[in-house]
Amino acid sequence: MRTTIFSTPIVTPILRFLAIVILQLTGWKAVGSKVSVPKYVLIGAPHTSNWDFPLMLLVVLELRLQLYWMGKHTLFPFPFSGLMKWLGGIPINRAKSHNVVFDVVKQFKDNETFVVLVPPEGTRSKVTHWKTGFYHIANNAEVPILMGYVDAKQKEGGFADFFHPTGDLEADMKEIRAFYAQKQGLRAENS
Question: What span, in angstroms and rounded, lies between the C-alpha atoms of 115 and 34?
Answer without folding.
Answer: 14
